[in-house]
Amino acid sequence: MNVDINLIPAELRAQPPVKSRTLVMILLVLVLAAAGFFLWESKNSAQSASTTLEKNIAALNAERNTLAGNKEANDLIKSINNKKTMATHHQAFLASRVNWGDALARAQSYVPQGVMVSKITQKDAFTLEIAGSATSYTAVSSYFKLLNSDPVLSQAGVPPSWKESQFTILLRVAPRGGA
After folding, report:
1. Is the overall model pTM greater than 0.90, yes or no?
2. For 178, which DSSP code?
3. Which fold is adopted by the domain 100-178?
């Protein structure tokens, strides 16, 4: 049993200046007010940006309509578009070219001991045929592995052929040096 031995009545005792519930309510109102202000500011900013875009669109449409009737402007636009198309085609053409000098130098640089390359022939747009002689199939296989590890040269689908110390290797050459 709790006995209140306080001589001052509860109504007259000192109360805390702010109750915790009141403090929580004040903080909640402040947070809601700040969130409301943020949303209001965002809405006004979006409306301002939208108005600016609408004015810019109207100005661009007016300028486009003015230029649409101008034959010189239309011819200039066509020539600019043609130039862009030709530049794109030229870049694609350059990307598809093979640097044969680099490919031949790479094929020659990997020749190991026991392998002698007698001829290198271009079979088609991207294929080299390497022919020669070797002391063993192991030497040819080693040469083939070195060639196949190069970023520019790769196997053209068939393994090296070997017959009586003569070999033939088909290699695919990457356009633009493998880049």
Report:
1. no
2. G
3. Gyrase A; domain 2 (3.30.1360)
